[in-house]
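Suppose a classmate hands you a notebook page containing two proteins, each written out with its sequence and a corresponding row of C-alpha cells. How would you begin to make sense of it? This section walks through that situation. The first entry is reproduced here exactly as it would appear on such a page.
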Amino acid sequence: MDTFEGLGDGSYFFAGMFNLTEGELAFWIVVDEASKQLNVQDVFALALIIGGMPLIKTRGKLDAKRTTKGTSALSLAMRTMIKHRLSSSWRSPTWKTMLNGQWARTNSLGGLIGRWLPWLGVAITAYDVTKITWNSIKRFNLIVKPEHRV
C-alpha cells in the first residue's frame, strides 16, 4: 500500500493509519502539511508577536483612555537601542489601536520600529497559515473520491 490511498470500504489509509474518515484524513493531512511548513522562521514570527505584547508596566501616560496600558519588550528594547527622534510624529499600530481601528503616533524611531516588528510576525504567520491551508486542500482533493472533494 502506498503512503495514502482509499480502501475498498470507503475509508482511507494515510501514513500508516487505517480506516480514516474524510474528516480524520483531512486533519492528518493538515498536521503533515504544517510539519512541512513550520520551521525556524515561525519561531521568530512567534517571538515577534509575543515580544510586541504590552506586558511591561509603565508609569502613567497622558491620555489613559486612548493609549495602551504598558509597553512591549520590543518597543522598550528598540527605544533603548535607537534613541533618534523624528522631526514629526509618525503613525504606528499597537494591539489596542488596531482593535479600535486607530493608529498611535510616535516621534521615536526606536518606538516606531518596535511597534511595527510584531506585524512582521503576523504577516509571516498569515503566509504560513495560507500555504498550509492551500496545500492541505490540494492534497486532500488528490486523495479522496470525487464526491468527497472540497
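The notebook's second entry, a different protein, reads as follows.
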Amino acid sequence: MTVYRYTLGALGLLLAAVGARLVAVLPDPLDVLVWLGGALVLHDAVIAPLVLGAGLLTAALPARGLLRGTLLTGGAVLLVTLPLLLRPGGAANPSALPLPYGRNLLLVLGAVAVAAGLLAAVRAVRSRGRRRRDA
C-alpha cells in the first residue's frame, strides 16, 4: 500500500510540474492565476454552500441518498456545460461549437432525472416485496 501511495504522489508531483511549466510558457500567465482564483472563490462562495444547503434540505427525506446523488450529478453536468452556454457572442468558426448545448443540457438532465426515477421505483418495488415476504 505504501508503494502505491508513493507512486501516486510522485505522479501527482510530475503532473503538477508539467502544469506549472505549461502555465509558465503562456504569454500572460497571470490570466490563468486570475481564472484559478476566480474558480476557487466561485467554489467556496457559491457551489459549496449550495451543495451543503441541498444536503441539509434533503436530510429528512426517505430517499435522500438518491436525491442527493441526482442533484450532484445534475449540478456537475450543468457546471461542465455552463461555459458553452454563456460564451459571449458566436464562435468565430461556426464549426467549433456547432451543437445546440441548451437543448442537449436539458436532454441530459432529463435522462438523469428519469434514471433516478427508475432507480427509486425499483427500490420501492423491492422494498414492498421484502415486506410481503416478512409478513
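A careful reader of the second entry would note: The helical segments are 2-24, 29-57, 64-86, 101-134.
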